[in-house]
């Protein structure tokens, strides 16, 4: 930094008049400090962190013609581009990628899952209108660097990659394991549409009570009954567990399918090995669909008002 | 084979209750009581009534103030109002609402029914 | 017996479309299109097609906004409208056989002792033809039951059945009267328990008097008339009693023809010397007016002391309707209690133990869950009887002492007459079938070709659990009727 500053200065001070002999006027310290480019932001900072080394103006003046007024010169050539900070980072990453190209990598699936900033996140964080293509190229390098074997990854790479990680990392969320209490019950909670179900699953002989009623009393439709105990049915555990469930909200379909999820979660607490089978049966993932809101100018969410030509 | 009750002929598939209610000034309350009095169940049809009950019903109806008797009372009441020269009587005679309703629109019923010899 | 309707063309059998009415015989019909059609309307000879003239419909049809729910013009010819009562008859018809079902070779007919034999638990057994006719005469079959899916009507012999048949047999042997109320949840087979009791009675030459729907007696839809010289006034229901007499006659023809009257009945218009067969007595009523005295005479003959009479089964379905204030009105415009209707009173007295059957027999009534008025007294009484019975057995081992439910002191709707009737009845609670019985059912369905699945442990468990612990009606819905839901 110091050397580059000096070089910058040389050109900056070019043109200072040689009238600096005898009692030269006191150096305009502030003016010199303005010459120092701040690292992060584009504007020239007036806050001095550490004063630059005193410049031997006299020596310089002897060698060059020094102008009376110095002009600030940016440190990086990117200063004059559209997205200077991004360009700097891009170049730094590119350099890193080239220098560590020989380090061993892990397959992408084995790398630690990370949520990268998307285009709008990146634009917001550095305050520049980054182009989508540039972002894509940059992220390709980021991904390549991320694949470097974690044991051998240099710290400088880790730091560089941190800039591209999102603040909230969803992959770090760990579900709280469902305990099995002293009565042998596992409590699973499931939701669907606007229904919520809590199911206590214990080992037993296939009895199901929903809100104090039997399955038959609670669900009039055979289809709803089937979907309520689908998790047990799909894994052939229908006669090995009893279920006591509380369901609230929504209609029969929502309640039945909320119950599916709740029972599946509680079942996984009893037998974790069943998770792949249950996932295959579609019992593990929460269905996020909700009723679409009604819009103005429409009869329902999307239905248009009746319209007859002429 | 129509059955005649109180001078009116009814189809045998007609409900007794409805047949009774077809007389003027005989409503659901009265018809239910008449049915109970002669032990006819509410879903009985005219065709199932024994002739004895039919004559009994006719006799019963002839003791009641229904049809023209009831109409006569109504007409007398209106005529009395008219003769006294009251506002109500006048409104009856003018085919207009009697009880202070607005007359800008929706007075079809009054137009149709209100007169000194009131219909219905 | 053939199927009630031709499944291929879905034509109502009563629609009058017989083979002869097809256009085959008409020489003019040769040029017409092929006679196959799916609707009755299209089978009728077409009217002359309009030629020329103005086109049908509005000029701007298809361009107008139709705001109303009801379309204006009636589209096309709708064919013949059904005759009065035809739709109801079609709705209420009972089919007991399906020629398309596979006959089940291992199905055996019920014998006189089969329903009381514990070895037959969880077996499907067919109803013999004569019993079918008898049960049909007394309307024991219902249109909601799936009789029409199988080659011949068959019933599952359950533990409860054997229990009930044994109790009936016991009562007949000791000349007691079994007074039993069959209760249970929806679709658990209460009506079928009554049917099995009737089948058992018919097989053992009892006299069976069955009231298929009690609501027909108490919802004010049949004629009634006060019986003279009764205090408090009782009411007879002549039309219904006449129908009942005819049903009794047809259902018990064999038994009644062998029993002879012991006394002359001077009150009847027809002279009945002693030693006339009871069948003739039952047939004495030709008019509704004569029905009630004849029924009384028949009843007094059946319960005559000293004479050697067969045991009697009095059965009814829909007990709750019997245990409420009826919809009839007295001449003073007061509601009549159901127990003041003479026929209901007879049944209630028999159920309450006030009326003894000298030659033994049974009074069996089933509750209904689908179409029943709320009768707090009956519900309470049945719960009390059940709790008392459990107490007598020592109760369920887990809960220790069984609480006998008591009247709610803040509720006014209790009925003392009902509780008096139900004070000492036995309650048979019907629940879902166990897995063995469920398996027998499913194997029978599969053997009849109605269930296309291999019946193994897994399938049985699945259907058993889905039907809320083996409720047979729900098992039918889940396994047999899935296409209908």
Automatic annotation (TrEMBL), chain A:
Molecular functions (GO terms): RNA binding; structural constituent of ribosome
GO cellular component entries: mitochondrial small ribosomal subunit
Sorted keywords for this record are:
Ribonucleoprotein, Ribosomal protein
Chain intervals with Polar residues compositional bias: 1-10
What ranges does the record list as Basic residues composition bias? 291-310
Q: Which InterPro entries match?
A: Ribosomal_Su5_D2-typ_SF (IPR020568), Ribosomal_uS9 (IPR000754), Ribosomal_uS9_bac/plastid (IPR023035), Ribosomal_uS9_CS (IPR020574), Ribsml_uS5_D2-typ_fold_subgr (IPR014721)
Q: Where is this region: Disordered?
A: 1-28, 288-310
Which Gene3D superfamilies does the UniProt record give? 3.30.230.10
Q: Does the keyword Phosphoprotein apply?
A: no
**Pfam families assigned:** Ribosomal_S9
For biological process, the GO terms are: translation
* Similarity field: Belongs to the universal ribosomal protein uS9 family.
User: What protein name applies here?
Assistant: Small ribosomal subunit protein uS9m
- Species annotation: Parathielavia hyrcaniae
UniProtKB/TrEMBL annotation, chain B:
- Protein location: Mitochondrion
Q: Give the InterPro entries listed for this entry.
A: Rbsml_uS13_C, Ribosomal_uS13, Ribosomal_uS13-like_H2TH, Ribosomal_uS13_CS
Secretion signal span: none
**GO molecular function ontology, one term from the record:** structural constituent of ribosome
Q: Which Gene3D superfamilies match?
A: 1.10.8.50, 30s ribosomal protein s13, domain 2 (4.10.910.10)
A single cellular component GO annotation: small ribosomal subunit
Q: Which UniProt keywords apply?
A: Mitochondrion, Ribonucleoprotein, Ribosomal protein
Annotated GO biological processes are: translation
The UniProt family comment states: Belongs to the universal ribosomal protein uS13 family.
UniProt function note: Component of the mitochondrial ribosome (mitoribosome), a dedicated translation machinery responsible for the synthesis of mitochondrial genome-encoded proteins, including at least some of the essential transmembrane subunits of the mitochondrial respiratory chain. The mitoribosomes are attached to the mitochondrial inner membrane and translation products are cotranslationally integrated into the membrane.
The family database entries (PANTHER family) matched by this protein are listed as: 30S RIBOSOMAL PROTEIN S13/40S RIBOSOMAL PROTEIN S18, SMALL RIBOSOMAL SUBUNIT PROTEIN US13M
Q: What is this protein called?
A: Small ribosomal subunit protein uS13m
Organism of provenance: Parathielavia hyrcaniae
Organismal lineage: Eukaryota, Fungi, Dikarya, Ascomycota, Pezizomycotina
Automatic annotation (TrEMBL), chain C:
Task: Tell me if Ribosomal protein is a UniProt keyword of this record.
Answer: yes
Q: Which domain of life is it from?
A: Eukaryota
Q: Which GO terms describe its molecular function?
A: structural constituent of ribosome
InterPro entries on file:
Ribosomal_mS29, Ribosomal_mS29_fun
Question: What would be one Gene Ontology cellular-component term for the protein?
Answer: mitochondrial small ribosomal subunit
Alphabetically ordered keywords of this record: Mitochondrion, Ribonucleoprotein, Ribosomal protein, Transit peptide
- What are the GO BP annotations of this UniProt entry? mitochondrial translation
Where does it localize? Mitochondrion
Q: Which residues fall in a compositionally biased region of kind Basic and acidic residues? A: 74-88
Region annotation (Disordered) ranges: 44-90
- Pfam families membership: DAP3
Family membership noted in the UniProt record: Belongs to the mitochondrion-specific ribosomal protein mS29 family.
**Name of the protein in question:** Small ribosomal subunit protein mS29
């Amino acid at each position: 930094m110091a050397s580059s500053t000096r070089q910058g200065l040389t050109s900056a001070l070019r043109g200072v008049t040689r009238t600096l002999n005898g009692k030269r006027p006191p150096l305009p310290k502030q003016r010199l400090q303005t010459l120092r480019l701040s690292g992060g932001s584009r504007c020239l900072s007036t806050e001095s962190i550490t004063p630059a080394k005193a410049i031997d103006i006299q020596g310089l003046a002897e060698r060059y013609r020094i102008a009376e007024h110095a002009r600030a010169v940016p440190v990086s050539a990117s200063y004059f581009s559209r997205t200077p900070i991004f360009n700097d980072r891009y170049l730094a990453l590119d350099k890193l990628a080239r220098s560590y190209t020989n380090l061993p990598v892990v397959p992408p699936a084995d790398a630690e899952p990370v949520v990268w900033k998307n285009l709008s996140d990146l634009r917001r964080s550095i305050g520049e209108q980054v182009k989508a293509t540039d972002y894509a190229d940059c992220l390709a390098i980021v991904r390549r660097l991320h694949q470097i074997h974690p044991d051998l990854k240099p710290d400088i790479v880790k730091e560089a990659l941190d800039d591209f990680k999102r603040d909230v990392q969803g992959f770090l969320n760990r579900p709280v394991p469902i305990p099995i209490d002293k009565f042998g019950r596992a409590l699973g909670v499931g939701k669907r549409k606007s229904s919520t179900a809590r199911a206590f699953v214990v080992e037993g002989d296939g009895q199901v009570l929903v809100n104090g009623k039997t399955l038959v009393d609670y669900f009039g439709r055979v289809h709803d009954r089937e979907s309520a105990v689908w998790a047990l049915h799909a894994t052939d555990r229908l006669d090995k567990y009893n279920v006591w469930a509380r369901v609230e909200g929504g209609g029969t379909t929502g309640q039945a399918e909320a119950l599916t999820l709740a029972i599946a979660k509680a079942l996984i607490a009893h037998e974790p090995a069943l998770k792949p089978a249950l996932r295959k049966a579609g019992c593990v993932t929460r269905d996020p669909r909700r009723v679409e809101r009604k819009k103005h100018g429409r009869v329902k969410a999307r239905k248009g008002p009746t319209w007859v030509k002429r | 084979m129509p059955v005649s009750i109180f001078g009116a002929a009814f189809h045998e598939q007609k409900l007794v209750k409805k047949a009774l209610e077809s007389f003027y000034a005989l409503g659901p309350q009265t018809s239910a009581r008449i049915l109970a009095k002669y032990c006819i169940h509410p879903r009985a049809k005219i065709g199932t009534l024994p002739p004895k009950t039919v004559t009994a019903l006719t006799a019963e109806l002839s003791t009641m103030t229904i049809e023209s008797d009831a109409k006569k009372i109504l007409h007398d009441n209106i005529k009395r109002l008219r003769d006294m020269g009251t506002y109500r009587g006048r409104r009856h005679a003018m085919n207009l609402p009697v009880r202070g309703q607005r007359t800008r629109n929706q007075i079809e019923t009054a137009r149709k029914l209100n007169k000194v010899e009131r219909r219905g | 017996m053939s199927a009630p309707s031709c499944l291929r063309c879905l034509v109502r059998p009563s629609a009058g479309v017989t083979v002869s009415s097809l256009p085959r015989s008409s020489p003019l019909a040769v040029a017409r299109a092929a006679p196959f059609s799916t609707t009755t309307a299209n089978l009728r000879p077409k009217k002359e097609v309009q030629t020329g003239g103005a086109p049908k419909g509005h000029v701007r049809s298809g361009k107008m906004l139709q705001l109303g729910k009801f379309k204006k013009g009636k589209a096309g010819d709708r064919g013949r409208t059904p005759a009065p009562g035809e739709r109801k008859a079609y709705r209420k018809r009972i089919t007991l056989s399906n020629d398309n079902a596979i006959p089940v070779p291992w199905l055996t007919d019920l014998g006189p002792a089969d329903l009381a034999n514990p070895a037959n638990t969880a077996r499907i057994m067919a109803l013999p033809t004569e019993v079918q006719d008898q049960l049909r005469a007394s309307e024991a079959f219902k249109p909601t039951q799936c009789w029409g899916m199988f080659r011949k009507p068959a019933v599952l012999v359950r533990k409860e059945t054997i229990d009930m048949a044994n109790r009936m047999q016991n009562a007949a042997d000791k000349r007691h009267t079994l007074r039993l109320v069959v209760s249970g949840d929806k679709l658990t087979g209460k009506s079928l328990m009554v049917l099995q009791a009737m089948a058992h009675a018919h097989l053992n030459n009892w006299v069976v008097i069955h009231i298929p729907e009690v609501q027909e007696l108490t919802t004010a839809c049949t004629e009634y008339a006060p019986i003279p010289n009764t205090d408090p006034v009782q009411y007879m229901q002549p039309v219904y009693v006449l129908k009942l007499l005819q049903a009794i006659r047809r259902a018990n023809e064999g038994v009644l023809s062998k029993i002879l009257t012991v006394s002359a009945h001077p009150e009847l218009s027809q002279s009945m010397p002693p030693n006339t067969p009871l069948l003739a007595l039952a047939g004495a009523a030709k008019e509704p007016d004569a029905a009630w005295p004849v029924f009384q005479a028949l009843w007094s003959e059946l319960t005559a002391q000293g004479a050697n009479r067969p045991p009697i089964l009095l059965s009814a379905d829909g007990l709750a309707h019997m245990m409420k204030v009826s919809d009839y009105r007295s001449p003073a415009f007061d509601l009549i209690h159901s127990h003041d209707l003479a026929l209901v009173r007879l049944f209630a007295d028999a159920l309450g133990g006030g009326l003894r059957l000298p030659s033994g027999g049974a009074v069996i009534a089933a509750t209904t869950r689908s179409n029943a008025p709320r009768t707090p007294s009956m519900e309470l009484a049945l719960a009390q009887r059940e709790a008392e019975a459990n107490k007598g057995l020592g109760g369920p081992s887990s809960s220790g002492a069984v609480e006998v439910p008591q009247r709610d002191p803040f509720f006014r709707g209790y009925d003392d007459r009902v509780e008096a009737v139900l004070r000492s009845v036995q309650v048979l609670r019907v629940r879902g079938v166990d897995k063995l019985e469920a398996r027998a059912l499913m194997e029978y369905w599969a053997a009849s070709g109605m269930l296309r699945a291999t019946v193994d442990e897994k399938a049985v468990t699945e259907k058993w659990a889905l039907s809320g612990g083996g409720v047979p009606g729900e098992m039918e819905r889940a396994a047999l009727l899935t296409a209908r839901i």
